[in-house]
């Protein structure tokens, strides 16, 4: 039950009550004295600031105000040797009061000879051909160089190229088997990532395994570097990472593909950050999973305490320097064209750079509702995510201040704090002090509880079948839920939160002023009414159950004005035009009416209803049998002329009725002036319709005849023109009819010469 006290915040204004919250519960202290609360008084008064509790008469010995504490579970001293201890303490338990921060020291000392695991991850695309020849002979030299620094070291090897899909690799079957140029005799088939040698301290074995590697190739310039790093980091057992300083050397002369590039090859599934090596140590999800993002790589490196060294050529050094800014505890070194300087590069990166000299302390798996901050080893700056100490040499001891705060009551939670790049971690177990710590007598028949319950933190915890502040109510045959339901108004809070439900009846608490709440559900008090000029009910009335009961001559929600209607009377003598109430000499308008006296309604429109107008003005329509009863709110006059017409509507005969409407005092009351004459449509002219129809028929017949005549004329004209053309083409013969005999006979004189 006392968990409640530690999950509260004491209000600043004298802390008269306590309300549920967490952030500032450390300022509150409960009193465990039996008779601290009066009968009917809210048990929340037990909780207040320590000074207020003392003022109320609670003895110091009965005030529960514990501090946060630290208990060291494992606290081995810092040491060197085969299994060095570099952090102190190693495991602690914090018992925290919610909202109260606790600060402790975390010490780190970098041990001399701490073992190093180095995994060499090499790009085997064709442009790295000459580099591979040098790497084949560096095993013993690299191992000896590391041993001179740390005393014990192991090295391993892995290689990578890229995904074997277009556009990253030529997918022609012949090219997949031999992606190198034709003149290259030894060539490895295209692959994504291959683990070659687990971490070992045998330099010769390293050289033998690496010497068996052959160069490979791909199409585009960027490589699958991030794919290879993810597998080298997640395959902890395959690689053989130990309890040591873990280094991952990435050797390449090209940039890298990242998350999203896989879509170019139709790969949509994101990288799952899991080890996926088959029996031959080949990455089997290379063509199924997308490349990992830089954020995924940074997170997994931090989780496994692996520090990357990017050994790259000058052409891509700037790219990897930008990448290094996103990955804590990483370093970039520039390779020579043939990687001949790789050993010196690695030794320099480890010995001189931030990999070993800069110590970053941070946490992992931080539970919700726990906050952690750090102060750097100099104690100057405070950070919420990490503490940093630069230029830490071997054997130098540095101390970080770590502050832990529980934001609310929680069950026991665990998280780790430690330096990046080292496997040693401080285990922090956090538990909140939210249980009752009152030294009450363990007796379920305590006399303070009418021998029907036990005392917990000064309050009664009743036995089954009893309830009440002192367990004075016996349920008998009644159901506890049914009794408590009687204390709720409209299913609201029990006794409105202002009293205790005892045997189905609300026993009301006292108000802040010392008076009592009242009403069947303690819903009433006489202290919370409206004020005017900082006076309850303006000093002109009494507060009764939250409402002001004004004295004669006063009115208003706060009885703040004298009764008067002078400002509400219209010229017609009505009050607010009958559309509101006069309160404090001002009209409180209703139904959208506005103005000082509710004279207008900007949002209202005239109801131009035709039924009453037709009935009143012309004695027809649906209301003609009960016109007076149906149109009781409308007075009317019949006019010969109207200067203007507000409404123009049709009656049931189709005639137009015109009228004006003037609003009267009150709601929906009008004076109507109706135009005497209606505009009715005239009947049809039968003679004109018949004559027009006959004329139309005659005209149509004439037009048809003219059309036929025109068609005949056009046809004859065409025939005539055709006849003329045939006449022009006709040719008559010049020969004579042999049967034809002329009527005269001509005889020639043979002797006639023609001479006269």
From TrEMBL:
SUPFAM superfamilies the UniProt entry points to: EGF/Laminin (SSF57196), Integrin beta tail domain (SSF69687), Integrin domains (SSF69179), vWA-like (SSF53300)
Its GO CC terms are: cell surface; focal adhesion; integrin complex
Membrane protein topology class: Single-pass type I membrane protein
Asked whether the keyword Membrane is assigned, the reply is yes
Domain Integrin beta subunit tail, which positions? 608-685
Molecular function (GO) terms listed?
A: amyloid-beta binding; integrin binding; protein kinase binding
Q: Where are the transmembrane segments?
A: 686-712
Please cite one Gene Ontology biological process associated with this protein.
Answer: cell adhesion mediated by integrin
Q: Which residues form the Integrin beta subunit VWA domain?
A: 14-436
Matches recorded under SMART domains: INB, Integrin_b_cyt, Integrin_B_tail
Which residues pair up as cystines? 18-58, 28-47, 180-187, 235-275, 409-647, 434-438, 457-495, 462-471, 473-487, 501-506, 503-537, 508-522, 524-529, 543-548, 545-576, 550-559, 561-568, 582-587, 584-627, 589-598, 608-615, 612-680, 631-655
Q: Which domain of life is it from?
A: Eukaryota
Domain annotation Integrin beta subunit cytoplasmic: ranges: 709-755
Keywords, ordered alphabetically? Cell adhesion, Cell membrane, Disulfide bond, EGF-like domain, Glycoprotein, Integrin, Magnesium, Membrane, Repeat, Signal, Transmembrane, Transmembrane helix
Where in or outside the cell it occurs: the entry states: Cell membrane
Family, per entry: Belongs to the integrin beta chain family.
**Protein name according to UniProt:** Integrin beta
**Species annotation:** Pygocentrus nattereri (Red-bellied piranha)
Q: Which gene encodes it?
A: ITGB2
């Amino acid at each position: 039950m006392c968990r409640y006290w530690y999950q509260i915040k004491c209000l600043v204004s004298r802390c008269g009550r306590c309300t549920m919250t967490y952030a500032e519960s450390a300022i509150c202290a409960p009193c465990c004295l039996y008779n601290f609360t009066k009968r009917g008084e809210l048990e929340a008064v037990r909780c207040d600031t320590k000074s207020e509790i003392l003022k109320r008469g609670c003895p110091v010995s009965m005030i529960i105000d514990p501090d946060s504490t630290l208990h060291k579970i494992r606290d081995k001293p810092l040491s060197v040797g085969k299994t060095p201890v570099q952090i102190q303490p190693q495991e602690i338990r914090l018992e925290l009061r919610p909202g109260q921060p606790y600060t402790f020291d975390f010490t780190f000392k970098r041990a001399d000879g701490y073992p190093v695991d180095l995994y060499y991850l090499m790009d085997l695309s064709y442009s790295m051909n000459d580099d591979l020849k040098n790497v084949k002979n560096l095993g013993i030299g690299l191992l000896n160089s590391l041993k001179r620094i740390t005393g014990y070291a192991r090295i391993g090897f892995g290689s990578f190229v890229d995904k074997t899909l277009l556009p990253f690799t030529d997918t022609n079957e012949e090219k997949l088997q031999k992606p190198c140029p034709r003149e290259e005799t030894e060539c490895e088939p295209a692959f994504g990532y291959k683990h070659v040698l687990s971490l070992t301290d045998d330099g010769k074995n390293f050289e033998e395994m690496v010497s068996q590697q052959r160069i490979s190739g791909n199409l585009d310039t960027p490589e699958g570097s991030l794919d290879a790093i993810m597998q080298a980091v997640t395959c902890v057992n395959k690689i053989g990472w130990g309890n040591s300083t873990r280094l991952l050397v990435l050797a390449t002369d090209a940039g890298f593909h990242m998350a999203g590039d896989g879509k170019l090859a139709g790969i949509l599934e994101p990288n799952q950050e899991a080890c996926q090596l088959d029996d031959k140590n080949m990455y089997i999800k290379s063509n199924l999973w997308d490349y990992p993002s830089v954020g995924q790589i940074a997170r997994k490196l931090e989780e496994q305490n692996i520090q990357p060294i990017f050994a790259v050529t000058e052409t891509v050094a700037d790219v990897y320097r930008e990448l290094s800014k996103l990955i804590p505890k990483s370093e970039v070194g520039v390779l020579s064209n043939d990687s001949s300087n790789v050993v010196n590069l690695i030794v320099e990166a480890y010995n001189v750079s931030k990999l070993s000299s800069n110590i970053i302390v941070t946490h992992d798996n931080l539970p919700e509702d726990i906050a952690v901050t750090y102060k750097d080893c100099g104690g100057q700056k405070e950070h919420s995510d990490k503490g940093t100490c630069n230029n830490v040499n071997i054997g130098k001891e540095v101390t970080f201040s770590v502050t832990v705060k529980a934001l609310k009551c929680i069950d026991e939670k665990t998280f780790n704090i430690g330096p990046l790049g080292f496997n040693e971690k401080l285990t922090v177990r956090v538990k909140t002090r939210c249980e009752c710590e009152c030294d009450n007598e363990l007796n379920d028949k305590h006399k303070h509880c009418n021998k029907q319950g036990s005392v917990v933190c000064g309050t009664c915890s009743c036995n089954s079948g009893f309830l009440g502040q002192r367990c004075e109510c016996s349920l008998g045959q009644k159901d506890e839920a049914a009794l408590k339901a009687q204390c709720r108004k409209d299913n609201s809070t029990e006794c409105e939160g202002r009293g205790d439900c005892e045997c189905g009846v609300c026993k009301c608490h006292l108000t802040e002023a010392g008076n009592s709440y009242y009403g069947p559900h303690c819903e009433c008090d006489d202290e919370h009414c409206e004020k005017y000029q900082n006076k309850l009910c303006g000093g002109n009335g009494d507060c009764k159950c939250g409402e002001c009961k004004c004295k004669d001559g006063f009115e208003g929600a706060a009885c703040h004005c004298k009764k008067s209607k002078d400002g509400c009377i219209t010229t017609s003598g009505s009050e607010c035009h009958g559309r509101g109430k006069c309160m404090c000499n001002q009209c409180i308008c209703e139904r959208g009416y506005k103005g000082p006296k509710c004279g207008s309604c900007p949002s209202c429109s005239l109801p131009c209803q035709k039924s009453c107008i037709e009935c009143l003005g012309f004695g027809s329509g649906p209301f003609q049998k009960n016109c007076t009863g149906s149109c009781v709110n409308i007075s009317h006059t019949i006019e010969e002329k109207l200067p203007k017409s507000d409404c123009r509507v049709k009656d049931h005969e189709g005639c137009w009725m015109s009228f004006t409407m003037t609003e009267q005092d009150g709601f929906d009351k009008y004076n109507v002036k109706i135009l005497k004459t209606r505009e009715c449509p005239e009947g049809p002219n039968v003679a004109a319709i018949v004559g027009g129809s006959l004329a139309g028929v005659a005209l149509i017949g004439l037009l048809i005849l003219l059309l036929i005549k025109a068609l005949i004329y056009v046809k004859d004209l065409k025939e005539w023109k055709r006849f003329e053309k045939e006449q022009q083409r006709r040719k008559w013969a010049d020969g004579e009819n042999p049967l034809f005999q002329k009527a005269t006979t001509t005889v020639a004189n043979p002797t006639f010469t023609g001479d006269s």
